[in-house]
Amino acid sequence: MQKSLILAVGLVAAPASAATITITVPRVNVAEYHNPYVAVWVEPVGGGAARTLAVWYDVDLRGAEPGTKWLADLRTWWRKGGRNLTLPADGVSSMTRAPGAHRITIPSSLRAGSYTLFVEAAREGGGREIVSMPLTIPAATGRAAGRTELGAITLSAR
Amino acid sequence: MKIRSLALAACAAIALAAPAHAHDQWLKPSVTVLSDTSQSVTVDAGSSTIPFQANHAPMGVDNMQVIRPDGTAGAIENTARGRYRTTFDVKIDMPGTWRIGTASSNIGGSFKVDGADWRIGRRRGPPPGAAGAAAGATPPPAPTNMVATADEIPAGATDIALTESHSRNEFFVTAGNPTEQVYTPTGTGLEFVPQGSPTDLVMGDPAQFQFLVDGQPAANVAVKLIADNVRYHSETHNMDLTTDAGGMITVDWPVAGFYWLSAEVEDENPSDARATKRRMTYIATLEVVAP
Fold first, then answer.
1. Best mutation site among A75, A77, A120 for testing chain B: the one with the most B CBs within 10 Å?
2. Mean pLDDT score, A62-66
3. Which CATH number is associated with domain B24-105+164-289?
4. Chain A residues with CB inside 8 Å of B291's CB?
5. pLDDT below 50 — which residues of chain B?
6. Does the model's pTM come out above 0.90?
7. Which CATH architecture has domain A9-156?
């Protein structure tokens, strides 16, 4: 969680038709700031397995205390499916993001239906927050916002 | 603890005074959920009137058992005994759910030799009939009518009243995905069977636990739960629950944090033929997170 690599991975061009989730990592005024770990997943409304869409963590940190050590701090995501993943996972895991808006493409393989979208953030030396909102596939639209560790979260159909 | 209570009981019997407060043993792990198998859990183990408050005595950890997810035995390391609590580490080097704690069994009680009362306990005088066995003949002055184990009860003893005691005190740690093998019931004694992972407890998400005695659901068992951090709350978050016909309790956690769960069952089905009663106590430390 210590490195703050600024990557524009979330802005990689997606197919024009793909729905996206824009997640704002808020700027927090603290002397020692570390980018938060963030997990994004969906759960079918009728019940069923969670599917992780993205997890931002310190992928490159290795050694005795690798970046994966703190993944369990995203404790709801960890319990609901994070611990089932083998990381790094293609198209899912990537580096932590600096404050700002970051876009995730909703994979086209996500079947039509009603889901709940969860975004959980945990920051070293900071707090933890989880925000959830309804997500309907197709035609995903909507907006939610966190209060402390997450800013605006918007769904866009394209 | 048990031996100590017996000794206390013996003192009480002689002094006709009840022991003041029960000192409960507790284990407090640093963490119960780990994301990989390169970490250790470090544990405080103490004995005090309020669980998790290190203010009375360190707990002995000589018979600490580490059961790895596949049922093999692990080990504790870096044991250090402080004034109020013992600490030790366990390397969590295998994915799955671990079970770490103490398990002990013993037989205590009383009997008579030539009309004189004798007890089984830690403080050990000469065996009955040996030179100097008469009460008051051996320092320390009381109680001298003690043998260490039931094996030392002489052939001529009468009024033998023995209780077989079994106790467990444990917690669970999970690395990666939880597994169930370590708490699969064995069908012997009092057993605690979490319905779902005991390391996935969340405030606002009621958890169920089943108690079995010799493999059968144990109904009407009083189960006490004491929440940690009493110093930081005006009200306590303790719960007194009773198992239903299926041996089940449902716990709706009022706050996040560690909980000390205890249950005790007494019956008349000891495994040792010399005993008439069986007392089984179970203690678990459970961690509950905020949602």
1. A75
2. 89
3. 2.60.40.10
4. 76, 130
5. 1-20, 124, 132-133, 136-141
6. no
7. Sandwich (2.60)
